[in-house]
Design a protein that fits this description.
Length: 214
């Protein structure tokens, strides 16, 4: 059995739902065989999120951590390659905080790479018939904050853990009156299921081009 911690986020920015939490909850209710999954909902609050993540890791002792967040406007699952040591918020978080150019971790490295096998994850999601790409920016809001927090925890306290961040599109119910891309939450959960299986199995990532020209 591989112990997997899945995190999703509470709704933010005036939304009623957050598909990241809905999807990880669905997945943890029916995990793939060989996977012992726990889903935890994180607050969309800069000052709390990384403490809550650390507590969840200490409680569940996972081998693999997949943090998930909503990225409205994206068309498929996007596996984040990198997270940066800065918080620069265009909107307030759920506690009203809007940091500008503050480090996630004072004195921490400028950035960390994901320790997920990115290419194998993307290939597995596509194999399940669901769009997926590698993303080279997780933004500078709370998702990047937790992605950096996770990578820093792995680098400094939990060296045996592998993990990273995945952004997912709007759910259809969030864009009923807007011309914006969306994916049903059940589809997102199926994509994450394939991703988790690939991440648990893969020790050496695929060597295929998934970069961006701009
Ligand atoms: N998405 C936001 C924060 C919470 C979430 O689900 C982000 O991309 O930073």
């Amino acid at each position: 059995m591989t112990r997997v911690l899945l995190t999703g986020f509470a709704p933010f920015g005036g939304q009623q739902v957050n598909p990241s939490w809905q999807a990880v909850k669905l997945l943890a209710e029916a995990p793939p065989s060989g996977v012992d999954a726990t889903a935890v909902e994180l607050p969309c609050v800069f000052r709390e999120v990384n403490t809550r993540l650390r507590q969840a890791i200490e409680r569940t002792e996972p081998e693999l951590v997949v943090c998930v967040g909503q990225a409205g406007g994206r068309t498929g699952l996007t596996v984040e390659r990198v997270c940066v040591n800065v918080a620069d918020a265009r909107i307030p978080d759920n506690a009203g905080a809007q940091p500008i150019d503050e480090p996630v971790v004072e004195g921490g490295p400028a950035a960390y790479f994901s320790s997920l096998p990115l290419k194998a994850c993307v290939a597995a999601v596509r194999e399940a018939g669901i769009p997926a790409t590698v993303s080279n920016t997780a933004g500078t809001f709370v998702c990047n904050h937790v992605a950096y927090g996770l990578a820093h925890l792995i680098a400094t306290r939990f060296p045996a853990v592998r993990g990273g961040f995945v952004h997912v599109p709007w759910a259809p119910e969030q864009v009923l009156d807007r011309a914006e891309p969306s994916l049903p939450v059940s589809t997102v959960a199926a994509g994450l299921r394939a991703l988790v299986v690939a991440a648990a199995r893969t020790t050496v990532d695929l060597r295929v081009a998934e970069g961006a020209t701009h």
